[in-house]
């Protein structure tokens, strides 16, 4: 039964069967909620915010709840589903920009601009199951971040409804110079990129676009040992910045042996070399469209990187490229499914998302291996964006008793990453499950400064409580 709370009847529901579908994100744990609000315009978002404040309810903005950190898992109160604000409002072909609503599925945005001969470069693996608003709020990135950077690099402006009743447009300034106070305040857009829902609700986004890319091919390079694959990845990363170096790939993605075993379970997986201990997925431009010729020209380079050239699997057609992406996506999907299986025994998936500078990548991965051996982890999957110094490290507590020990491993890895000049969250943000890592990166006074900004923009502390910042005792918002 629908309930009315001094709001339009169709905006809010308390129907248990509907609420059930919003209890968790992809972290594998379930939360709870008492209300679901489904606005379809910025004005309705403001209405929902005013309603939640009046009722003293927490309000968690969500896109498709594909977060893996608990960031999109409600812990009481209302969920604000932004999927009703979807669509590409305008594509400026000449200016290479688009105005987009936040609930637009990222893959739909990419398809819409591709139809105009343009590219929206960010490519989170989850692009078919996440929204632009969620991508901005978690500063998503993907395989092609090796060449194109993160979502932040493509956001020109955001419209945000805050908890103080404002609906404001924030635009990046296209100036060559700016000395307006602390750099962090030059572009308020950057307050909201990566803010994980805690500072307001993103209701519109302007993105920057590129011309459609030249034809390119995929090549899955196989290595006899993990170390050679890692060294190859670091070399490709270093060459990327060297003037006069040969052309760089668009992505450099690691699959360790465990990840390859998961790929092999995909129904359309090709046969993979059984003795390979690691692979790198790479993409290479072929500006003249001669993909086969380009592949042949690349083979000596692959060999020089230490790959076993005879094992190379190319992707030369659109369908083959798409299949390669599906195979890669199958790894985190399988890992998340394993997390759900562990949850049923009181266990969980515990992953790290550290990102280290190129010079620290080999030492970090040596430390990961040393830690794996020392702690006797039964399963560790090393997968993903190694070209950016950011492999996903997936570990599993099979039951409650293992959780503490594996969390301690994650802390150990994150501390080492920070020592090497890296970050504890190269992707996926902090959410609820990584809040303990915050202190490795930020001194207490800066955590308090972030909390102070939140208090101004969200006076009742109702937005996404528990994300990034601990919930202060005595706040007005509640988690009924
Ligand atoms: C199989 C799989 C693969 C993945 N691969 C990648 C990857 O390659 N790269 C990557 O970066 N991430 C990846 N993710 C994580 C996830 O997809 C991203 O974090 C994504 O950006 C979340 O988008 P969403 O629409 O699902 O947002 P949600 O999960 O619903 O929300 C994520 C965060 O954004 C906030 N939020 C959502 N919409 C708004 C809004 N309009 N205004 C304010 N706050 C908002 C939420 O409060 C929450 O804090 C993956 C996840 C899965 C399950």
What does this 3D model show about the protein?
There is one protein chain. With 480 residues, this protein is α+β, with helices and mostly antiparallel strands. Helices cover 33% and strands 20% of the residues. The protein has four domains: 12-83, Uridine Diphospho-n-acetylenolpyruvylglucosamine Reductase, domain 2; 85-211, 2-Layer Sandwich (Uridine Diphospho-n-acetylenolpyruvylglucosamine Reductase, domain 3), CATH 3.30.465.10; 216-332, Alpha-Beta Plaits (2-Layer Sandwich), CATH 3.30.70.2190; 345-439, Alpha-Beta Plaits (2-Layer Sandwich), CATH 3.30.70.2740. The strands form four sheets. It has a seven-stranded antiparallel β-sheet with strand order 15-12-14-13-17-18-16, sandwiched between helices. It has a five-stranded antiparallel β-sheet with strand order 5-6-10-8-9. A four-stranded mixed β-sheet has the order 1-2-4-3, covered by helices on one side. The protein is globular, with a radius of gyration of 23 Å. It starts with 11 loop residues before the first strand and ends in a 23-residue tail after the last helix. The mean pLDDT is 94. The chain binds flavin-adenine dinucleotide. Flavin-adenine dinucleotide binds next to strand 3, helix 4, strand 10 and helix 10.
